[in-house]
Amino acid sequence: MTIKEIAALAGVSVSTVSKIMNGKDGNINPATRSRVLKIAKEHHYEPYSTIKNITAPKKFLIGLLLNSFCSSNRMIEGVLETAQKCGYQLLIFNSIHSLSQELKHITALCNSRVDGVIWEPVSGQSTEYEHFFSKQNIPVCYINAPDDIPSYSIDFVKAGYAMTKELIDQKHTRITCLLQEGDPISSMILEGFQKCLYDYKIAFEKQQILYSPIDNCYTSLIAHGITGVISAYYSHALMLYEQLVNLHYYIPSSLSLVSLSDTEEYAHYPHISCIQVPYHEFGRHVCEALILQCEKSPQSSPPSLFTPAYTLTHKKSIRIPSFLRMKKLVVAGSIHMDLTFIVNRLPQAGKTTEILTSVISVGGKGVNQSVGAAKLGREVSLIGKLGNDFDSSLILNTLEKEHVTAHGIYRDMNVPTGKAYIYTGEDGESTITVLSGANQNLTPEDIRKQEHLFANAGFCLLSTEIPVDAIIEAARIAHSSDVKVILKPAVLQTIPDELLALTDIFIPNQKEAATLCPHEDSAEKQAEYFLQKGAAAVIITLGHKGCYLKNKEEAHFFPAENFASIDTTGGADAFICALASYLTEGYPICKAIRIASYAAGFCVSRQGVVSALVDRSTLETYITQHDPSLL
Q1: Active-site residue, from 169, 567, 573, 615
Q2: Segment (H or E) for 408
Q3: What does the mean pLDDT of the chain come to?
Q4: Distances 513 to 191, 332, 579, 581, 601 between C-alpha atoms, Å
Protein backbone atom coordinates (compact mmCIF):
# COMPACT_ATOMS: atom_id res chain seq x y z
CA MET A 1 0.00 0.00 0.00
CA THR A 2 1.30 3.45 -0.93
CA ILE A 3 1.49 6.56 1.18
CA LYS A 4 -1.29 8.12 -0.89
CA GLU A 5 -3.61 5.19 -0.12
CA ILE A 6 -2.81 5.47 3.60
CA ALA A 7 -3.55 9.21 3.44
CA ALA A 8 -6.85 8.57 1.65
CA LEU A 9 -7.97 5.98 4.17
CA ALA A 10 -7.04 8.28 7.06
CA GLY A 11 -8.58 11.36 5.49
CA VAL A 12 -5.36 13.40 5.78
CA SER A 13 -2.70 14.72 3.46
CA VAL A 14 0.33 12.74 2.26
CA SER A 15 2.50 15.26 4.10
CA THR A 16 0.72 14.51 7.38
CA VAL A 17 1.23 10.77 6.96
CA SER A 18 4.93 11.32 6.16
CA LYS A 19 5.44 13.48 9.25
CA ILE A 20 3.75 10.95 11.52
CA MET A 21 5.63 7.96 10.11
CA ASN A 22 8.97 9.79 10.39
CA GLY A 23 8.44 11.12 13.90
CA LYS A 24 8.04 14.78 12.91
CA ASP A 25 4.51 15.06 14.25
CA GLY A 26 4.87 17.44 17.17
CA ASN A 27 2.07 19.77 15.98
CA ILE A 28 -0.31 17.10 14.78
CA ASN A 29 -3.53 16.35 16.63
CA PRO A 30 -3.18 13.19 18.83
CA ALA A 31 -6.41 11.71 17.46
CA THR A 32 -5.14 12.15 13.89
CA ARG A 33 -1.79 10.55 14.81
CA SER A 34 -3.55 7.54 16.41
CA ARG A 35 -5.83 7.09 13.35
CA VAL A 36 -2.94 7.16 10.89
CA LEU A 37 -0.81 4.75 12.97
CA LYS A 38 -3.74 2.35 13.36
CA ILE A 39 -4.32 2.20 9.60
CA ALA A 40 -0.58 1.84 8.90
CA LYS A 41 -0.31 -1.06 11.35
CA GLU A 42 -3.37 -2.80 9.97
CA HIS A 43 -1.98 -2.63 6.44
CA HIS A 44 1.64 -3.37 7.41
CA TYR A 45 2.77 -0.12 5.77
CA GLU A 46 6.52 0.64 5.93
CA PRO A 47 7.40 4.00 4.42
CA TYR A 48 10.30 4.65 2.14
CA SER A 49 11.92 7.90 3.10
CA THR A 50 13.96 9.75 0.51
CA ILE A 51 14.96 12.34 3.04
CA LYS A 52 18.04 11.44 5.05
CA ASN A 53 17.70 12.48 8.63
CA ILE A 54 18.49 11.21 12.09
CA THR A 55 14.97 10.06 12.84
CA ALA A 56 14.10 6.63 11.45
CA PRO A 57 10.63 5.95 10.03
CA LYS A 58 8.09 3.82 11.91
CA LYS A 59 8.75 0.08 11.69
CA PHE A 60 6.25 -1.11 14.34
CA LEU A 61 9.06 -3.02 16.01
CA ILE A 62 9.80 -3.14 19.76
CA GLY A 63 13.01 -4.30 21.42
CA LEU A 64 13.08 -6.25 24.72
CA LEU A 65 16.57 -6.06 26.25
CA LEU A 66 16.83 -8.24 29.36
CA ASN A 67 19.60 -8.66 31.89
CA SER A 68 18.64 -12.33 32.22
CA PHE A 69 15.85 -14.67 31.14
CA CYS A 70 15.60 -15.96 34.72
CA SER A 71 11.96 -15.90 35.95
CA SER A 72 10.99 -13.82 32.92
CA ASN A 73 9.22 -16.23 30.59
CA ARG A 74 5.77 -15.13 31.71
CA MET A 75 6.78 -11.48 31.48
CA ILE A 76 8.01 -12.03 27.90
CA GLU A 77 4.67 -13.67 27.10
CA GLY A 78 2.87 -10.58 28.43
CA VAL A 79 5.05 -8.21 26.37
CA LEU A 80 4.63 -10.30 23.22
CA GLU A 81 0.88 -10.63 23.66
CA THR A 82 0.44 -6.85 24.03
CA ALA A 83 2.84 -6.00 21.19
CA GLN A 84 1.02 -8.28 18.76
CA LYS A 85 -2.34 -6.98 19.89
CA CYS A 86 -1.20 -3.42 19.13
CA GLY A 87 0.31 -4.34 15.73
CA TYR A 88 3.98 -4.47 16.76
CA GLN A 89 6.62 -7.15 16.38
CA LEU A 90 9.16 -8.00 19.08
CA LEU A 91 12.95 -8.45 19.12
CA ILE A 92 14.25 -10.14 22.31
CA PHE A 93 17.85 -9.96 23.56
CA ASN A 94 19.49 -11.50 26.66
CA SER A 95 22.56 -9.71 28.07
CA ILE A 96 23.41 -12.61 30.42
CA HIS A 97 24.57 -10.14 33.13
CA SER A 98 27.32 -8.81 30.77
CA LEU A 99 27.87 -5.11 30.00
CA SER A 100 29.78 -5.89 26.82
CA GLN A 101 27.02 -8.19 25.60
CA GLU A 102 24.47 -5.53 26.48
CA LEU A 103 26.28 -2.94 24.32
CA LYS A 104 26.29 -5.31 21.34
CA HIS A 105 22.52 -5.75 21.73
CA ILE A 106 22.00 -1.97 21.94
CA THR A 107 23.88 -1.57 18.65
CA ALA A 108 21.73 -4.28 17.05
CA LEU A 109 18.54 -2.63 18.26
CA CYS A 110 19.61 0.75 16.87
CA ASN A 111 20.55 -0.80 13.52
CA SER A 112 17.14 -2.48 13.44
CA ARG A 113 15.52 0.95 13.82
CA VAL A 114 13.15 -0.21 16.60
CA ASP A 115 10.38 2.16 17.64
CA GLY A 116 11.00 1.66 21.35
CA VAL A 117 12.85 -0.50 23.89
CA ILE A 118 11.94 -2.19 27.17
CA TRP A 119 15.29 -2.33 28.96
CA GLU A 120 16.33 -4.26 32.05
CA PRO A 121 19.85 -2.83 32.64
CA VAL A 122 22.74 -5.03 33.72
CA SER A 123 23.90 -2.41 36.25
CA GLY A 124 23.96 1.30 36.98
CA GLN A 125 26.72 1.67 34.35
CA SER A 126 24.28 0.57 31.66
CA THR A 127 22.75 4.04 31.47
CA GLU A 128 25.98 5.31 29.90
CA TYR A 129 24.71 3.66 26.69
CA GLU A 130 21.34 5.42 26.72
CA HIS A 131 22.59 8.11 24.35
CA PHE A 132 22.62 5.56 21.51
CA PHE A 133 18.82 5.36 21.79
CA SER A 134 18.27 9.08 22.41
CA LYS A 135 20.21 10.02 19.25
CA GLN A 136 17.64 8.12 17.22
CA ASN A 137 14.67 9.34 19.30
CA ILE A 138 13.96 5.79 20.47
CA PRO A 139 11.92 5.89 23.71
CA VAL A 140 13.04 3.57 26.52
CA CYS A 141 11.08 2.03 29.38
CA TYR A 142 13.42 0.76 32.10
CA ILE A 143 12.39 -2.24 34.21
CA ASN A 144 13.97 -3.45 37.46
CA ALA A 145 16.66 -0.77 37.25
CA PRO A 146 18.86 0.46 40.15
CA ASP A 147 17.17 2.90 42.54
CA ASP A 148 18.57 6.05 40.91
CA ILE A 149 17.01 5.20 37.52
CA PRO A 150 13.25 5.78 37.08
CA SER A 151 11.87 2.39 36.08
CA TYR A 152 8.90 0.06 36.14
CA SER A 153 9.03 -2.74 38.70
CA ILE A 154 6.76 -5.14 40.59
CA ASP A 155 5.87 -4.12 44.14
CA PHE A 156 7.51 -7.01 46.03
CA VAL A 157 7.25 -4.99 49.26
CA LYS A 158 3.48 -5.35 49.00
CA ALA A 159 3.90 -9.10 48.30
CA GLY A 160 5.99 -9.53 51.45
CA TYR A 161 3.37 -7.61 53.42
CA ALA A 162 0.52 -9.70 51.98
CA MET A 163 2.22 -13.04 52.82
CA THR A 164 2.98 -11.91 56.37
CA LYS A 165 -0.58 -10.68 56.90
CA GLU A 166 -1.97 -14.08 55.82
CA LEU A 167 -0.08 -15.69 58.71
CA ILE A 168 -0.96 -12.94 61.18
CA ASP A 169 -4.64 -13.38 60.25
CA GLN A 170 -4.23 -17.01 61.37
CA LYS A 171 -2.95 -15.76 64.77
CA HIS A 172 0.76 -16.36 64.11
CA THR A 173 3.11 -13.98 65.91
CA ARG A 174 6.39 -15.94 65.63
CA ILE A 175 7.08 -15.74 61.91
CA THR A 176 10.35 -16.10 59.99
CA CYS A 177 11.29 -14.81 56.56
CA LEU A 178 13.19 -17.22 54.25
CA LEU A 179 15.37 -15.17 51.88
CA GLN A 180 18.33 -15.26 49.52
CA GLU A 181 21.21 -13.09 50.69
CA GLY A 182 22.18 -10.15 48.45
CA ASP A 183 19.03 -10.55 46.33
CA PRO A 184 16.93 -7.44 45.44
CA ILE A 185 13.60 -9.31 45.54
CA SER A 186 14.49 -10.74 48.97
CA SER A 187 15.31 -7.24 50.22
CA MET A 188 11.87 -5.98 49.16
CA ILE A 189 10.12 -9.01 50.68
CA LEU A 190 11.95 -8.34 53.95
CA GLU A 191 10.86 -4.69 53.87
CA GLY A 192 7.21 -5.73 53.47
CA PHE A 193 7.61 -8.37 56.21
CA GLN A 194 9.00 -5.81 58.68
CA LYS A 195 6.35 -3.23 57.78
CA CYS A 196 3.54 -5.72 58.38
CA LEU A 197 4.96 -6.76 61.76
CA TYR A 198 5.24 -3.09 62.73
CA ASP A 199 1.65 -2.33 61.65
CA TYR A 200 0.35 -5.22 63.76
CA LYS A 201 2.57 -4.31 66.73
CA ILE A 202 4.64 -7.50 66.57
CA ALA A 203 8.29 -7.15 67.59
CA PHE A 204 10.91 -7.88 64.93
CA GLU A 205 14.17 -9.65 65.75
CA LYS A 206 17.09 -10.50 63.50
CA GLN A 207 16.64 -14.19 64.38
CA GLN A 208 13.42 -14.04 62.35
CA ILE A 209 15.43 -13.85 59.10
CA LEU A 210 16.55 -17.15 57.62
CA TYR A 211 18.86 -17.22 54.59
CA SER A 212 19.37 -20.09 52.14
CA PRO A 213 20.95 -22.62 52.04
CA ILE A 214 18.58 -24.01 54.66
CA ASP A 215 20.20 -27.30 55.66
CA ASN A 216 19.21 -28.29 59.20
CA CYS A 217 17.31 -25.05 59.67
CA TYR A 218 14.49 -26.62 61.69
CA THR A 219 16.71 -26.54 64.78
CA SER A 220 16.70 -22.76 64.50
CA LEU A 221 12.93 -22.67 63.94
CA ILE A 222 12.31 -24.75 67.09
CA ALA A 223 14.78 -22.75 69.18
CA HIS A 224 12.96 -19.50 68.40
CA GLY A 225 9.43 -20.93 68.64
CA ILE A 226 8.65 -20.19 64.99
CA THR A 227 5.14 -21.22 63.87
CA GLY A 228 5.00 -19.69 60.36
CA VAL A 229 7.39 -19.06 57.44
CA ILE A 230 7.15 -16.79 54.39
CA SER A 231 9.55 -17.52 51.52
CA ALA A 232 10.74 -15.23 48.73
CA TYR A 233 11.33 -18.20 46.39
CA TYR A 234 9.25 -21.32 45.87
CA SER A 235 12.36 -23.49 45.40
CA HIS A 236 13.49 -22.57 48.93
CA ALA A 237 10.01 -23.27 50.33
CA LEU A 238 10.02 -26.66 48.63
CA MET A 239 13.42 -27.55 50.13
CA LEU A 240 12.15 -26.57 53.59
CA TYR A 241 8.98 -28.62 53.03
CA GLU A 242 10.99 -31.74 52.10
CA GLN A 243 13.41 -31.25 54.99
CA LEU A 244 10.53 -31.05 57.47
CA VAL A 245 8.90 -34.22 56.11
CA ASN A 246 12.19 -36.09 56.48
CA LEU A 247 12.27 -35.00 60.13
CA HIS A 248 8.63 -36.07 60.62
CA TYR A 249 7.33 -32.53 60.89
CA TYR A 250 4.41 -31.72 58.65
CA ILE A 251 2.88 -28.66 57.04
CA PRO A 252 0.54 -27.17 58.17
CA SER A 253 0.09 -29.20 61.38
CA SER A 254 3.65 -28.45 62.58
CA LEU A 255 4.37 -25.22 60.69
CA SER A 256 2.50 -22.87 58.33
CA LEU A 257 4.23 -21.95 55.07
CA VAL A 258 3.54 -19.28 52.41
CA SER A 259 5.70 -18.59 49.35
CA LEU A 260 5.97 -16.46 46.25
CA SER A 261 5.86 -18.51 43.07
CA ASP A 262 6.71 -17.52 39.51
CA THR A 263 4.77 -20.24 37.66
CA GLU A 264 1.21 -21.48 38.07
CA GLU A 265 2.28 -25.13 38.18
CA TYR A 266 3.91 -24.65 41.58
CA ALA A 267 0.53 -24.17 43.22
CA HIS A 268 -0.60 -27.78 42.75
CA TYR A 269 1.79 -30.17 44.54
CA PRO A 270 3.06 -30.21 47.12
CA HIS A 271 0.32 -28.13 48.67
CA ILE A 272 2.25 -24.95 49.48
CA SER A 273 0.10 -21.83 49.67
CA CYS A 274 1.50 -19.36 47.12
CA ILE A 275 1.15 -15.80 45.96
CA GLN A 276 1.72 -15.72 42.22
CA VAL A 277 4.24 -13.12 40.99
CA PRO A 278 2.27 -11.27 38.28
CA TYR A 279 5.01 -11.36 35.63
CA HIS A 280 2.58 -11.78 32.75
CA GLU A 281 0.45 -8.80 33.80
CA PHE A 282 3.61 -6.77 34.44
CA GLY A 283 4.87 -7.48 30.91
CA ARG A 284 1.58 -6.31 29.45
CA HIS A 285 1.62 -3.19 31.63
CA VAL A 286 5.13 -2.12 30.57
CA CYS A 287 4.55 -2.87 26.89
CA GLU A 288 1.38 -0.76 26.91
CA ALA A 289 3.33 2.10 28.52
CA LEU A 290 6.06 1.89 25.86
CA ILE A 291 3.61 1.85 22.96
CA LEU A 292 1.91 4.94 24.36
CA GLN A 293 5.34 6.66 24.29
CA CYS A 294 6.12 5.37 20.79
CA GLU A 295 2.85 6.81 19.53
CA LYS A 296 3.23 10.00 21.58
CA SER A 297 -0.07 9.47 23.32
CA PRO A 298 -1.11 12.06 25.91
CA GLN A 299 -2.13 9.12 28.14
CA SER A 300 1.50 8.07 28.70
CA SER A 301 2.72 8.39 32.30
CA PRO A 302 6.08 8.20 34.09
CA PRO A 303 7.47 4.88 35.40
CA SER A 304 5.91 3.51 38.59
CA LEU A 305 5.55 0.44 40.81
CA PHE A 306 3.21 -2.24 39.48
CA THR A 307 0.98 -3.05 42.46
CA PRO A 308 -1.54 -5.82 41.79
CA ALA A 309 -3.96 -7.24 44.37
CA TYR A 310 -2.05 -10.22 45.77
CA THR A 311 -4.15 -13.27 46.62
CA LEU A 312 -3.24 -16.83 47.71
CA THR A 313 -3.65 -19.77 45.37
CA HIS A 314 -5.13 -21.72 48.33
CA LYS A 315 -4.66 -22.04 52.10
CA LYS A 316 -3.70 -25.71 52.34
CA SER A 317 -0.35 -25.00 54.03
CA ILE A 318 -1.69 -22.48 56.56
CA ARG A 319 -3.36 -23.18 59.93
CA ILE A 320 -3.53 -21.47 63.27
CA PRO A 321 -0.53 -22.38 65.51
CA SER A 322 -0.76 -25.81 67.09
CA PHE A 323 -0.79 -24.43 70.66
CA LEU A 324 -4.01 -22.52 69.84
CA ARG A 325 -5.77 -25.50 68.26
CA MET A 326 -7.98 -27.88 70.20
CA LYS A 327 -6.06 -30.96 71.24
CA LYS A 328 -5.97 -33.66 68.56
CA LEU A 329 -6.33 -37.43 68.80
CA VAL A 330 -3.75 -40.12 68.03
CA VAL A 331 -4.97 -43.58 67.02
CA ALA A 332 -2.76 -46.69 66.92
CA GLY A 333 -4.63 -49.70 65.67
CA SER A 334 -5.47 -52.16 62.93
CA ILE A 335 -6.02 -51.32 59.28
CA HIS A 336 -8.07 -53.80 57.25
CA MET A 337 -10.08 -54.30 54.15
CA ASP A 338 -13.42 -55.54 55.46
CA LEU A 339 -15.33 -58.24 53.60
CA THR A 340 -18.83 -58.17 55.06
CA PHE A 341 -21.23 -61.04 54.39
CA ILE A 342 -24.93 -60.55 55.12
CA VAL A 343 -26.41 -63.87 56.24
CA ASN A 344 -29.79 -65.06 57.57
CA ARG A 345 -28.02 -66.65 60.57
CA LEU A 346 -24.44 -66.52 61.87
CA PRO A 347 -22.17 -69.47 60.93
CA GLN A 348 -22.30 -72.49 63.27
CA ALA A 349 -20.14 -75.59 63.43
CA GLY A 350 -21.45 -78.35 61.14
CA LYS A 351 -23.99 -76.12 59.38
CA THR A 352 -23.80 -74.42 55.99
CA THR A 353 -24.74 -70.73 56.00
CA GLU A 354 -25.98 -69.04 52.84
CA ILE A 355 -24.53 -65.58 52.11
CA LEU A 356 -27.31 -63.23 51.00
CA THR A 357 -25.02 -60.43 49.84
CA SER A 358 -21.49 -59.15 50.39
CA VAL A 359 -19.77 -55.77 50.69
CA ILE A 360 -16.08 -54.79 50.50
CA SER A 361 -15.06 -51.69 52.48
CA VAL A 362 -12.20 -50.08 54.37
CA GLY A 363 -12.06 -51.02 58.06
CA GLY A 364 -10.05 -52.09 61.07
CA LYS A 365 -10.44 -50.51 64.49
CA GLY A 366 -7.66 -48.02 63.84
CA VAL A 367 -9.32 -46.79 60.64
CA ASN A 368 -12.84 -46.83 62.11
CA GLN A 369 -11.87 -44.79 65.17
CA SER A 370 -9.76 -42.27 63.26
CA VAL A 371 -12.38 -41.68 60.55
CA GLY A 372 -15.10 -41.44 63.20
CA ALA A 373 -13.14 -38.80 65.09
CA ALA A 374 -12.39 -36.86 61.89
CA LYS A 375 -16.11 -36.81 61.00
CA LEU A 376 -16.75 -35.31 64.43
CA GLY A 377 -14.36 -32.46 63.66
CA ARG A 378 -11.23 -33.72 65.39
CA GLU A 379 -7.72 -33.46 64.01
CA VAL A 380 -6.55 -37.09 64.12
CA SER A 381 -3.38 -39.01 63.20
CA LEU A 382 -3.36 -42.76 62.56
CA ILE A 383 -0.39 -45.06 63.26
CA GLY A 384 -0.50 -48.48 61.63
CA LYS A 385 0.91 -50.73 58.94
CA LEU A 386 -0.26 -51.69 55.44
CA GLY A 387 0.95 -54.19 52.88
CA ASN A 388 2.24 -53.25 49.46
CA ASP A 389 -0.88 -54.13 47.47
CA PHE A 390 -3.91 -52.60 45.79
CA ASP A 391 -5.90 -52.67 49.04
CA SER A 392 -3.36 -50.33 50.65
CA SER A 393 -3.91 -47.69 47.96
CA LEU A 394 -7.69 -47.84 48.43
CA ILE A 395 -7.27 -47.41 52.19
CA LEU A 396 -4.90 -44.44 51.88
CA ASN A 397 -7.26 -42.76 49.42
CA THR A 398 -10.14 -43.21 51.86
CA LEU A 399 -8.12 -41.75 54.75
CA GLU A 400 -7.18 -38.72 52.65
CA LYS A 401 -10.80 -38.22 51.64
CA GLU A 402 -11.89 -38.39 55.29
CA HIS A 403 -9.14 -35.92 56.38
CA VAL A 404 -7.22 -38.36 58.55
CA THR A 405 -3.48 -37.61 58.82
CA ALA A 406 -1.75 -40.74 57.51
CA HIS A 407 1.91 -39.77 58.09
CA GLY A 408 2.20 -42.48 60.76
CA ILE A 409 1.26 -45.34 58.41
CA TYR A 410 3.99 -47.71 57.20
CA ARG A 411 4.10 -50.12 54.26
CA ASP A 412 5.37 -53.67 54.70
CA MET A 413 6.71 -54.99 51.39
CA ASN A 414 6.55 -58.66 52.41
CA VAL A 415 2.99 -59.26 53.60
CA PRO A 416 -0.50 -58.27 52.41
CA THR A 417 -2.73 -55.68 54.00
CA GLY A 418 -4.86 -57.12 56.81
CA LYS A 419 -8.36 -58.37 56.11
CA ALA A 420 -11.44 -58.83 58.29
CA TYR A 421 -14.22 -61.27 57.37
CA ILE A 422 -17.46 -60.09 58.97
CA TYR A 423 -20.68 -62.12 59.12
CA THR A 424 -23.75 -60.04 59.97
CA GLY A 425 -27.06 -61.70 60.82
CA GLU A 426 -30.58 -60.41 60.36
CA ASP A 427 -30.68 -59.20 63.99
CA GLY A 428 -27.62 -56.99 63.42
CA GLU A 429 -25.27 -59.10 65.53
CA SER A 430 -21.95 -60.00 63.92
CA THR A 431 -19.07 -62.44 64.03
CA ILE A 432 -15.63 -61.29 62.89
CA THR A 433 -12.56 -63.25 61.85
CA VAL A 434 -9.31 -61.43 61.14
CA LEU A 435 -6.31 -62.07 58.89
CA SER A 436 -3.76 -59.75 60.52
CA GLY A 437 -1.41 -59.34 57.57
CA ALA A 438 0.80 -56.26 57.91
CA ASN A 439 -0.90 -55.26 61.19
CA GLN A 440 1.03 -58.01 62.99
CA ASN A 441 4.36 -56.46 61.96
CA LEU A 442 3.85 -53.07 63.62
CA THR A 443 6.74 -52.75 66.09
CA PRO A 444 7.58 -50.61 69.13
CA GLU A 445 10.29 -48.97 67.00
CA ASP A 446 7.61 -47.97 64.45
CA ILE A 447 5.68 -46.32 67.28
CA ARG A 448 8.76 -44.51 68.62
CA LYS A 449 9.46 -43.03 65.16
CA GLN A 450 6.04 -41.35 65.34
CA GLU A 451 6.47 -39.89 68.83
CA HIS A 452 6.08 -36.37 67.43
CA LEU A 453 2.43 -37.13 66.58
CA PHE A 454 1.62 -37.18 70.31
CA ALA A 455 2.49 -33.48 70.68
CA ASN A 456 -0.62 -31.42 71.56
CA ALA A 457 -2.82 -34.56 71.65
CA GLY A 458 -5.60 -35.04 74.18
CA PHE A 459 -6.22 -38.77 73.82
CA CYS A 460 -4.50 -41.81 72.32
CA LEU A 461 -6.94 -44.50 71.16
CA LEU A 462 -5.49 -48.02 71.22
CA SER A 463 -6.97 -51.32 70.07
CA THR A 464 -5.31 -54.72 70.42
CA GLU A 465 -5.52 -56.05 66.86
CA ILE A 466 -1.86 -54.99 66.63
CA PRO A 467 1.02 -56.52 68.67
CA VAL A 468 0.80 -55.93 72.41
CA ASP A 469 4.42 -54.68 72.69
CA ALA A 470 3.59 -51.92 70.15
CA ILE A 471 0.46 -51.02 72.13
CA ILE A 472 2.43 -50.80 75.39
CA GLU A 473 5.02 -48.55 73.71
CA ALA A 474 2.26 -46.25 72.42
CA ALA A 475 0.75 -46.10 75.92
CA ARG A 476 4.16 -45.27 77.45
CA ILE A 477 4.77 -42.46 74.96
CA ALA A 478 1.25 -41.13 75.53
CA HIS A 479 1.73 -40.94 79.29
CA SER A 480 5.16 -39.30 78.96
CA SER A 481 3.50 -36.75 76.64
CA ASP A 482 0.62 -36.12 79.09
CA VAL A 483 -1.85 -37.77 76.70
CA LYS A 484 -4.70 -39.92 78.11
CA VAL A 485 -5.09 -43.50 76.85
CA ILE A 486 -8.34 -45.23 75.86
CA LEU A 487 -7.89 -48.99 75.30
CA LYS A 488 -10.20 -51.38 73.44
CA PRO A 489 -9.06 -55.01 74.17
CA ALA A 490 -10.17 -56.76 70.97
CA VAL A 491 -8.99 -60.39 70.41
CA LEU A 492 -6.98 -60.52 73.68
CA GLN A 493 -7.17 -63.62 75.89
CA THR A 494 -5.13 -62.02 78.68
CA ILE A 495 -4.05 -58.44 79.30
CA PRO A 496 -0.68 -57.37 80.78
CA ASP A 497 -0.92 -55.54 84.08
CA GLU A 498 1.57 -52.99 82.73
CA LEU A 499 -0.83 -52.05 79.92
CA LEU A 500 -3.81 -51.68 82.27
CA ALA A 501 -1.71 -49.48 84.56
CA LEU A 502 -1.07 -47.16 81.59
CA THR A 503 -4.78 -47.04 80.63
CA ASP A 504 -6.99 -44.10 81.57
CA ILE A 505 -10.24 -45.54 80.19
CA PHE A 506 -10.58 -49.30 79.55
CA ILE A 507 -13.50 -50.19 77.23
CA PRO A 508 -14.18 -53.92 76.73
CA ASN A 509 -17.53 -55.29 75.60
CA GLN A 510 -19.27 -57.84 77.82
CA LYS A 511 -17.72 -60.82 76.01
CA GLU A 512 -14.20 -59.34 76.17
CA ALA A 513 -14.68 -58.52 79.85
CA ALA A 514 -15.77 -62.12 80.54
CA THR A 515 -12.72 -63.49 78.69
CA LEU A 516 -10.27 -61.26 80.56
CA CYS A 517 -12.02 -61.71 83.92
CA PRO A 518 -13.64 -65.16 83.79
CA HIS A 519 -13.94 -65.52 87.57
CA GLU A 520 -16.49 -62.69 87.83
CA ASP A 521 -19.96 -62.85 86.27
CA SER A 522 -21.24 -59.27 86.49
CA ALA A 523 -20.22 -55.99 84.88
CA GLU A 524 -19.87 -54.36 88.31
CA LYS A 525 -17.43 -56.97 89.60
CA GLN A 526 -15.50 -57.16 86.34
CA ALA A 527 -15.10 -53.37 86.28
CA GLU A 528 -13.86 -53.42 89.89
CA TYR A 529 -11.31 -56.11 88.93
CA PHE A 530 -9.91 -54.00 86.09
CA LEU A 531 -9.72 -50.96 88.38
CA GLN A 532 -7.74 -53.00 90.90
CA LYS A 533 -5.38 -54.02 88.09
CA GLY A 534 -4.56 -50.37 87.40
CA ALA A 535 -7.08 -48.91 84.92
CA ALA A 536 -8.20 -45.40 85.98
CA ALA A 537 -11.74 -45.88 84.64
CA VAL A 538 -13.67 -48.77 83.09
CA ILE A 539 -16.61 -48.67 80.66
CA ILE A 540 -18.07 -52.09 79.78
CA THR A 541 -20.31 -51.88 76.71
CA LEU A 542 -23.40 -54.10 76.90
CA GLY A 543 -24.85 -53.93 73.38
CA HIS A 544 -28.55 -53.04 73.31
CA LYS A 545 -28.50 -52.81 77.15
CA GLY A 546 -26.19 -49.79 77.10
CA CYS A 547 -22.95 -49.61 79.12
CA TYR A 548 -21.56 -49.53 82.66
CA LEU A 549 -19.08 -46.94 83.97
CA LYS A 550 -16.94 -47.34 87.07
CA ASN A 551 -14.11 -45.17 88.34
CA LYS A 552 -12.95 -44.02 91.77
CA GLU A 553 -15.70 -41.41 92.05
CA GLU A 554 -18.78 -43.03 90.56
CA ALA A 555 -20.46 -46.12 89.12
CA HIS A 556 -23.42 -45.90 86.70
CA PHE A 557 -25.37 -47.88 84.14
CA PHE A 558 -26.27 -45.93 81.00
CA PRO A 559 -29.09 -47.16 78.76
CA ALA A 560 -28.58 -47.59 75.01
CA GLU A 561 -30.29 -44.99 72.84
CA ASN A 562 -33.35 -46.08 70.87
CA PHE A 563 -31.99 -46.95 67.42
CA ALA A 564 -32.91 -49.97 65.28
CA SER A 565 -30.00 -52.39 65.07
CA ILE A 566 -28.93 -53.20 61.48
CA ASP A 567 -25.18 -53.88 61.83
CA THR A 568 -23.39 -53.79 65.20
CA THR A 569 -19.87 -54.18 63.73
CA GLY A 570 -18.73 -50.60 64.25
CA GLY A 571 -20.79 -49.63 67.29
CA ALA A 572 -17.90 -49.81 69.78
CA ASP A 573 -15.57 -47.80 67.50
CA ALA A 574 -18.23 -45.11 67.02
CA PHE A 575 -18.71 -44.99 70.80
CA ILE A 576 -14.98 -44.71 71.55
CA CYS A 577 -14.15 -41.97 69.01
CA ALA A 578 -17.16 -39.89 70.09
CA LEU A 579 -16.29 -40.35 73.77
CA ALA A 580 -12.70 -39.16 73.15
CA SER A 581 -13.84 -36.26 70.98
CA TYR A 582 -16.23 -34.80 73.55
CA LEU A 583 -13.93 -35.46 76.51
CA THR A 584 -11.30 -33.47 74.57
CA GLU A 585 -13.74 -30.57 74.43
CA GLY A 586 -14.10 -30.63 78.21
CA TYR A 587 -17.39 -32.49 78.61
CA PRO A 588 -17.68 -34.45 81.90
CA ILE A 589 -17.45 -38.21 81.42
CA CYS A 590 -21.14 -38.94 82.09
CA LYS A 591 -22.29 -36.48 79.41
CA ALA A 592 -19.59 -37.68 77.00
CA ILE A 593 -20.81 -41.29 77.46
CA ARG A 594 -24.39 -40.30 76.65
CA ILE A 595 -23.28 -38.39 73.52
CA ALA A 596 -21.14 -41.39 72.53
CA SER A 597 -24.17 -43.66 72.96
CA TYR A 598 -26.04 -41.58 70.36
CA ALA A 599 -23.06 -41.85 67.99
CA ALA A 600 -23.01 -45.63 68.46
CA GLY A 601 -26.77 -45.75 67.85
CA PHE A 602 -26.40 -43.99 64.52
CA CYS A 603 -23.65 -46.40 63.48
CA VAL A 604 -25.47 -49.66 64.35
CA SER A 605 -28.62 -48.43 62.58
CA ARG A 606 -26.74 -48.35 59.28
CA GLN A 607 -24.99 -51.00 57.21
CA GLY A 608 -21.17 -51.03 57.31
CA VAL A 609 -18.78 -49.06 59.50
CA VAL A 610 -16.84 -46.20 57.84
CA SER A 611 -19.86 -45.17 55.78
CA ALA A 612 -22.09 -45.54 58.85
CA LEU A 613 -20.08 -43.30 61.18
CA VAL A 614 -21.98 -40.13 62.01
CA ASP A 615 -20.76 -36.59 61.31
CA ARG A 616 -20.83 -33.88 63.95
CA SER A 617 -23.62 -31.81 62.38
CA THR A 618 -26.01 -34.77 62.11
CA LEU A 619 -25.21 -35.99 65.61
CA GLU A 620 -25.65 -32.64 67.34
CA THR A 621 -28.76 -31.75 65.35
CA TYR A 622 -30.37 -35.02 66.48
CA ILE A 623 -29.32 -34.55 70.11
CA THR A 624 -30.61 -30.95 70.10
CA GLN A 625 -34.01 -32.26 68.99
CA HIS A 626 -34.19 -35.23 71.41
CA ASP A 627 -31.97 -34.35 74.39
CA PRO A 628 -31.16 -30.60 74.19
CA SER A 629 -29.75 -30.30 77.73
CA LEU A 630 -26.95 -32.73 76.84
CA LEU A 631 -24.99 -30.31 74.65
Answers
A1: 573
A2: strand 405-412
A3: 89
A4: 65, 21, 19, 24, 21
